[in-house]
Amino acid sequence: MKETFIKLHISVLLAGLTGIFGKLITLNEGLLVWYRMLFASVIFFLFLAGSRKLQKISGRDFGRMAGAGALLGLHWVFFYGSIKYSTISIGVVCFSLSGFFTSILEPVLLHKRFSFRELLFSFIALTGVVFIFSFDIRYRLGIGMGAFSSLLYSLFSIRTRQIGQDYPSRTLLLYEMTGGFLVLSCLLPFYLVAFPVSSVLPGTQDLTYLLLLAVFCTIGLQLLQIQVLQKISAFTVSLTYNLEPLYSILLAMIFFHEARELNFAFYIGVSLILLSVLLQAWDTMRKRKTVTAS
Predict the structure, then answer these.
(1) How many angstroms separate the Cα of 209 from the Cα of each of 21, 35, 98, 137?
(2) What's the average pLDDT block by block, 10 residues per block, for the chain (294 residues)?
(3) Global pTM?
């Protein structure tokens, strides 16, 4: 069990590193995500084919997974755009809004009852982001892109939940990555017309970072999650992943000295977001104890 928890925290750290790579890679956010999904799709396909775990799916299911993959790809584009137009810390903090969007969209799209507690906790997180937005006008574009990124991730997670019941995670990951890559390939020419670049080819340093991002922070991260979920509960995993923004912020402070750029309003906003996370964790644990007792 100790080994499983070590794997869990390694996976959270890898998730926190995605923001660091977004700052290190000099390609614009569109090309960054396109290469990430290309490399992840090819490498993961070769891995599954070599281990004889490649699963064929119907054209209809591929279309559904490709649609979810497109949402994931667009989420990444806006997430990395948020980081590049602001800071890593602000980008990962805005990602916390995905809980707010999910608390509203999931009951509507899945025909479930609204949870007052989830809405309340998410509103506290929203207040934290608004606090940062209101008092720090330098990064409004980055904050706006981060908020929209959270909306897209919320839609992606809901969609994945709808279509992921009949296939293992590795199959879902492969076809979402492949489908997302194909959709982005269709959109990328228009994106590059709107945001022209001097070269679409990554340099040696960017190529190295992209391969590390694809292998460790995409494929490796997902495989670790699968292994961990086979041993411990999804609740424990999701609760531990609340540490991801903290890991990203600490890494950004270490590698990019972002603490110098963050003002008092940022820390108040982060405190409100952490409060919402703690309240959600407490509420989930309370519900589990109630179910166990009954």
Answers:
(1) 7, 11, 27, 31
(2) 80 88 93 96 93 90 93 95 88 79 82 78 78 70 90 88 79 92 95 90 95 92 76 60 75 78 75 77 68 55
(3) 0.85
Angle between helices 2-24 and 244-256 (to 10 degrees): 50
Residue with tokens 């190529």: 207
Tokens of 174: 């492969």
For residue 54, give the DSSP letter. Answer: -
Tell me what pLDDT residue 178 has.
95
Structure tokens at 288: 């589990």
Q: Can you tell me the distance from the alpha carbon of 140 to that of 267, in angstroms, rounded to the nearest whole number?
A: 17
Transcribe 139-181 into DSSP letters: GHHHHHHHHHHHHHHHHHHHHHHHHTTSS-HHHHHHHHHHHHH
